[in-house]
Design a protein that fits this description.
By secondary structure, this protein is α/β, with parallel strands linked by helices. The chain has three domains: about 160 residues, P-loop containing nucleotide triphosphate hydrolases (Rossmann fold, 3-Layer(aba) Sandwich); about 180 residues, P-loop containing nucleotide triphosphate hydrolases (Rossmann fold, 3-Layer(aba) Sandwich), CATH 3.40.50.300; about 80 residues, 2-Layer Sandwich (GMP Synthetase, Chain A, domain 3), CATH 3.30.300. About 30% of the residues lie in helices and about 20% in strands. The protein contains eleven helices and 17 strands. Strands 2-3-1-4-5-6 form a six-stranded mixed β-sheet, sandwiched between helices. β16, α11 and β17 form a beta-alpha-beta unit. It starts with a strand and ends in a 5-residue tail after the last strand.
Length: about 450
């Protein structure tokens, strides 16, 4: 099931991006002390206590004026509100209640969503009294916070998660493989869905961006149950002008979260562009099993080396996803489509694979004997033991004397050794170095 969604909204320059960065623990949003810097929504993943949720940082809502950009930002914020399960309404203690705050409040009243009112820039005890006037906005007890100093976030997040829907579990059974198709517009995702299903289940059009929402298509083949999630094409930020197109990106992100296997669809006619890398990165960062599907291969002028060259281009452009298999297909002619589901089955199985601890440690011992960990200033990292802590994706913890002595290149070496011994094709592997308890 996809994570619940929380949107941060408010007029410009109340500190939404600073609050966003504090909650997700990363400086993802541009923070600048002038109005209107955040032009589009930003998305991140956050966790508080046992609750995980997606967070949207919106551009400030400005209700007056005819400026096209301001109207676009307003529309984006309203779409984020529509998508959200709960809303953080952010205001500024220094400025007090403004007419713009009241207008944003009107939008939130109409949305009929749970709202947590947060008063930012309450940097010291002396400012506590400035919070009381925000009761006039009609959203209950205002929560004082300081984005600059990190104050009040426990109370804020407690209030937010209290409004989030309880986890209802997966809407499909554990035995169902959920497959999301992602890619930029007009690469043929909907045509692929229809070709797999053998029917016109999804609207197919030559106009880019026809699929506005994620669509579930359950089916069964050879005793295996699947759900294919077709998503709207993701366009490059700045190249998207329709609000509904931007709205579709969040839906596609949620589809990725729900999926077991993600098909990164590439247009064989047009080749690889930079945006394909960003789109594939969403699946990789989410830890999903993945594969590349090069569509429209029937329309490509080929010689006996064309597929080999295209494969190498994918490997060169997607170094971070060298584990993902590649399949060249044609939704139009059904070329190689018979290989798609068996490959999906395989990567889904690998994504859920668990390695016995004794076998894993034998492998790690052999790897260390062949290539000892590097040393730093005379100190060498010593590996105690390793264990697999979870699946989907397979995640390993290696206990060492000092994690600071670890280097990504050695972690990569260990990962490659694991991949050489066990079939993890199609799935990322996560590896963490932890300090070994000296009392053990």
């Amino acid at each position: 099931m996809a994570n619940p969604v929380v949107a941060i909204v408010g007029r410009p320059n109340v500190g939404k991006s600073t609050i966003f960065n504090r909650i997700i623990g990363d400086r993802m949003a541009i923070v600048e002390d002038r109005p209107g810097v955040t032009r589009d929504r930003l998305y991140g993943h956050a966790e508080w206590l046992t609750h995980r949720f997606s967070l949207i940082d919106t551009g400030g809502i400005e209700t007056g004026g005819e400026d096209e950009l301001l109207q676009s930002v307003k529309v984006q914020a309203e779409l984020a509100i529509d998508e959200a399960d709960a809303i953080i309404f952010l205001v500024d203690a220094k400025a007090g209640v403004t007419a713009a705050d009241a207008e944003v409040a009107e939008i939130l009243y109409r949305a009929r969503k749970p709202v947590v009112l947060a008063v930012n820039k309450v940097d010291n005890v002396g400012r506590q009294e400035e919070v009381y006037e925000f009761y006039n906005l009609g959203f209950g007890d205002p929560i004082p916070v300081s984005g600059a100093h990190g104050l009040g976030f426990g109370d804020l997040l407690d209030a937010v998660v209290a409004h989030l829907p309880k986890d209802q579990g997966d809407e499909y059974g554990e035995d169902v493989i959920k497959v999301a198709l992602i890619g930029r517009p007009n690469v043929g995702k909907s045509s692929l869905v229809n070709a797999i299903l053998g029917e016109e289940r999804v609207i197919v059009s030559h106009v880019a961006g026809t699929t506005r929402d994620a669509i579930d298509s359950p089916f069964e083949r050879d005793g295996q149950k699947y759900v294919i999630i077709d998503t709207a094409g993701m366009r490059k930020r700045g190249k998207v002008y329709e609000a509904t197109e931007k709205y579709s990106v969040m839906r596609a992100m949620k589809a990725i979260e729900r999926a077991d296997v993600v098909l990164v669809v590439i247009n064989g006619e047009e080749g690889i562009i930079e945006q394909d890398k960003h789109i594939a990165g969403f699946a990789h960062e989410a830890g999903k099993a993945a594969m590349f599907v090069v569509n429209k291969w029937d329309a490509v002028d080929k010689d006996d080396k064309t597929m080999q060259r295209f494969t190498q281009q994918i490997r060169d452009h997607f170094l971070f996803m060298d584990y993902a298999p590649i399949l060249f297909v044609s939704a139009k002619t059904k070329q190689r489509l018979n290989k798609l589901l068996p490959l999906i089955d395989n990567v889904a199985e690998n994504h859920a694979q668990r390695i016995q601890t004794s076998l894993l440690n034998d492998l790690i011992s052999d790897a260390v004997a062949m290539n000892p960990p590097p040393s730093d200033k005379g100190k060498r990292m010593k590996i105690g033991y390793a264990t697999q802590v979870t699946v989907k994706p397979p995640t390993f913890v290696v206990f060492v004397n000092d994690p600071q002595l670890s280097h990504f290149s050695y972690e990569r070496y260990l990962e490659n050794k694991i991949r050489a011994s066990f079939n993890f094709e199609g799935t990322p592997i996560r590896m963490f170095m932890r300090k070994k308890n000296t009392e053990e």
